[in-house]
Amino acid sequence: MDDLLTTGLKRFGLVAGLSLSLVIAGCSSDDGKKEEDNADKPETTASVSEAVNYTITGIEPGAGVFKAAENAVDEYELEGWNVQASSSGAMATALGEAVKNEEPIIVTGWTPHWKFAKYDLKYLEDPKGVFGDVETINTMTRKGFKDDNPNAYKLLEQFEWTTDDMEAVMAEIEEGTSPAEAATNWVEANEEKVATWTEGVEEGTGEIELVYVEWDSEISSTNVVGKVLEDLGYTVTLTPLDNAIMWQAIAGGEADAMVAAWLPATHGDLYEQFKDDIDNVGVNLTGAKIGLVVPTYVDIDSIEDLEAK
């Protein structure tokens, strides 16, 4: 009997020992799994805010999207955040470096733009509507331009294209082609569409100055329109200006036209300021959009996901 009891206790001790070992191993395994899961877990919204140093990489401070970004900081109560002024080119460079290193970044963005074709990006949701709805890009001329240049005015009035058209020109420029050459290539490859712009338009003479803000989208559209006007016989000057000065130049009659007016949000305040002194010829592109943009690997979906400092 004693031998049986001793044997039973030994067996029980062995089983208990094994059970304890399995429990310990199980806990260690679970802990290891948790560590792995935490390592694989995407950045939290708080860490994204910290990782970008509570900074939105912007463009020129006079741009509507820049002002809207500043408004977003206030509306979403993002205390301690900064909208960093730079330029369209500097913003694109910073975005490219961040994507290359898979680092988080938040930029002021708009479409059409070649960056959406080159990188996997997304707009942050804007439930408060700070950045507005879909926009149009409009053509504006100085007062009296229609009387002075009726054929050129008719061309501008009939000029209309799509976001795909514009992005094709932008992409070629981004790859290293000069804006003038990219515009020429597009015009030659899209004769049918260009023919709808020039329908009923007679050849002309004289000088025309087109002004634009140095955004990739406006560089593309202005060069394309300039090329078509040159083909009609005009001597065309393309002049890059800051946003406000571009509008002032048209309103003051110092320049003839622009195809770079984003409405109703981006240039809305400037349009209200100068609308009585300019001629709104009409829409040349629909489906434009502005907002805050991040690479898709950044684990936030809305401006509301951002944290105050």
TrEMBL record:
Gene3D superfamilies reported for this sequence: Dipeptide-binding Protein, Domain 3, Glycine betaine-binding periplasmic protein, domain 2
GO biological process: choline transport; glycine betaine transport
Keyword Transport: yes
Pfam families linked to this entry: OpuAC (PF04069)
Organism: Savagea serpentis
Domain ABC-type glycine betaine transport system substrate-binding: 42-188, 207-308
One MF annotation (Gene Ontology) recorded for this entry: carnitine transmembrane transporter activity
Subcellular location: Cell membrane
Main localization (coarse): membrane
Assigned GO CC terms: ATP-binding cassette (ABC) transporter complex
Keywords (A to Z) from UniProt: Cell membrane, Membrane, Transport
Protein name (record): Glycine/betaine ABC transporter
